[in-house]
Structures are given as C-alpha cells and as structure tokens.
Input
Amino acid sequence: QVQLVESGGGLVQPGGSLRLSCTASGITFSMYTAAWYRQAPGKQRDMVATISIRGSTDYDESVKGRFTISRDNAKNTVYLQMNNLKPEDMAVYYCRTSRGILTYWGQGTQVTVSS
Output
C-alpha cells in the first residue's frame, strides 16, 4: 500500500518560514518525480515546485527565490522549505509522486499565513 504523509504545516506570520516534509512508503521513492502542489479555498490545485529523480527542480513563478524543494532518497522524503511567506501562500499543500502513469497524493497539510 502506497502512502504519502505530509507534515510541517501550521500558522506563521507574514515573512516567516516553514518546512514541509512528505515521507513515502510502499514505493521505490528514488524512482519517482516528486512535487508540491497547493490549493486555496475556491481555487484549483496548482503546482508549486517539482524535483526530478536526478534532482532537477522547477518552481512556479510566484514562489521562485522564496521556496526550495529538495529530496532525501535515503529517507524517502521530499521537503519544501518556504521562506518569506505571504498571505497569498496560504493553502492546503499536497505532495505528489509520479512515475509514468502512476501518481500518488498525500492527504495535505494546512499552511496559514496571518498576523
């Protein structure tokens, strides 16, 4: 059974930082592309950052220079370091792993940015 378990969400003030983690089980994580998505209330789920099996990264323009995606294959974990958070970053953040037609999602973790 494949599971992706996210953690690290919470309440932070504007300008603050959070680090999200997503740990996978039931798959050979190193063989999967990993990504973070987010979904704000009433909006579609959008890609935030991706990291390939070789470590190449890509970011949505809105988070470039503030967010960093990384992976530790030995720990089956993908991270999202979020700095200088803004109110518009507030959303439920989901991790996703994919390989070909195989795609798995985590349950999501809430990030709230408010003073």
In short: The radius of gyration is 13 Å. Residues 94 and 107 are 7 Å apart (CA to CA). The chain has a mean pLDDT of 97.
